[in-house]
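Crash report, auto-generated. Payload:
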Amino acid sequence: MALNVSGIWDALAGVEDPELPVAITDLGLVRSVTVEGAHVRVQLVPTFTGCPALDVIRERVRGRLLGLPGVETAEVVFTYEEPWTLDRLTETARVRLADHGLSVPRASLAEPAVCPFCGSTNTVIENPFGATLCRAIYYCRDCRNPIERFKPPGDPTPAPKS
Amino acid sequence: MSRSRRLRRKRWGTRGSSTALDGTDVDHLAFGRGSQDFRNAILTERPNGDWAFTVVRAWLYDHADAARLAALAASPLGSFAAMAKTLQREEKYHLLFSDAWLVRLTRSGPDGRARIQAALDAAWPDACGIFEATPEIARLVETGSLRSSPAEQAARWEADARVRLADLELQVPAGEARTGGRAGRHTPDLAGLLDEMTSVWRTDPSARW
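Recovered output after restart:
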């Protein structure tokens, strides 16, 4: 049976991130899928380099690929050629992260944080380092709850002029 | 940089296998080496205990790390530079954290300012040692893989740090850089730190976790 790339993407949509209840495809972690005969190669874009979930994600993806009929070998690589940015999140990911109680910035962490409980922007950062690398801790001054915010890596640095 | 972050990076460098880049087991690389086999700058082996020192150390290190990453990001080696650019985006949060704490403690009152100044006096010569030149780095510079030397990176870091410290009316102490760490010559502090860090592993080095 010939493998097709869109079928592989569908299968990857069933792989969840170990730290968040969101599919890796909705988080924008998958950069490319290529098929050569019975060999599948998937490139992933990590949010943070030191993320302890990377090994788990790699194994989950490899397991899912090898479970597909027609796949004999699977290669899963992390790439740093392209930075992970917030615009890689799908709307589904944004809804699921919000349901999970996380505030999610639109384009950058510099925007005021919106409290996921009361919707207020009267919030203040407590610590840029939260429970995981991709979360920061804030405090809502209106409903007086500590809140967690999804934290993207800082904006990409412009390429130096050569 | 925290110790756990350094270890995670090391783990990342192995690309998920149990063999380190030098062919040994990663756990052995992390926990089984003697202090002479470590190549960290002396600044990073000083013990914790005083929060002002911890803040000043983190601040000095993070800004030095930023200067080093800028040099790595300008490397003509594509994958190397891409990695450095990724790390620069993460470094931003470390700078945010240590900048905020340095300002907070320095402006907290006379006691906070005195403690920060004392910590700076203690840590500055060690911080200058971060940019210690080694034959390995010199080779990277000679071959063009790295476009600025440790001395050039140090000069950029120091000029920037002096401006920031002057803004806070802190005095930079005189004195020579304390080096040796990047060549494996450490203070007794490292042995103490490793002793604690490896105590669980040493109870049974063959255990699988």
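Post-recovery validation: The mean pLDDT of chain A is 91.
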